[in-house]
Specification:
The protein contains 3 helices and no strands. The protein has about 45 residues and is an all-alpha fold. The protein has one domain. The protein is globular and about 25 Å long.
Length: about 45
């Protein structure tokens, strides 16, 4: 089952934990940065 974007946005806003597929969908839709991008930003 694919999580709705509204559910993912609510979880991000409320600081709730995202499941694997929810996190992947959020990254694909640009709602969250990928872990690799965050790591690159930290090293700069």
């Amino acid at each position: 089952m694919v999580a709705k974007l509204s559910t993912i946005r609510r979880k991000i806003r409320n600081g709730e934990k995202l499941g694997f597929s929810e996190r992947a969908r959020a990254v694909n839709k640009g709602l969250l940065a990928s872990k690799s991008k965050r790591r690159k930003n930290v090293k700069k």
